[in-house]
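Workshop exercise sheet. Pairs work together: one partner reads the sequence aloud, the other fills in the structure field after running the prediction. Swap roles for the next sheet.
Pair: D.N. / O.F.
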Amino acid sequence: MSWFGQRYVLDTNALSQLRRHRRESEFFREHTVIPSEVLHEAQGFPDIDVLRANLYPTTSSVLDWLVRIMATVPVGDTKLVDLYANHGGADPLVVACALDGKTRDGQFLGAPEWVVVTSDAAVRAKAEGFNLHVLNSAEFAAIIDAAEDQRPSDAPLLDGSENIDEDQSYRTCSQCGRDCQPEPFQHERGFRIAFICPEHGVHSVVDPFEGR
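Structure field:
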């Protein structure tokens, strides 16, 4: 697990599926980036001016990654991009931005993990092909809700002996009282969110979809 959490790169579909209150959350503002082409496709959003603050620019290094990504797409394969049908123009750029960020931060100890957020099967396949972690829109929404003190459905603590209570004890370290940061992972029983204390490590693990 990273010392500095995650950075989330969203495609247009994932961005549109997030309700506005989640896009306006502090967690979203601090932990997400949006590729320039995704912002272009989202220009009709009512909060587009606010979303531009999360721009991940298309730099020369991003373009280098884009070339490498497109080189892996077989000729005639339109699942990821079909320019004639105006489909997926931003999708490879999402993966390129995540890889660029991962490479740039990789020189630092405890660097953040770069995560692609998409519900598109082709984008997921390409991102995972480059060893990137991928979440769908519902999983990312659950992380935002957990980080913003919204109770995630009576999810259990690590030892399974007690449930989340009204004082949000699942996200406050019992040893030092510090706020824990949400970190997604894939459990053998499905998607889970771990809450990590910077000093004492894993404090709790929740299933955000339990009871839904």
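Discussion prompt: Confidence is low (pLDDT under 50) at residues 82-88, 150-167. What would you look at next?
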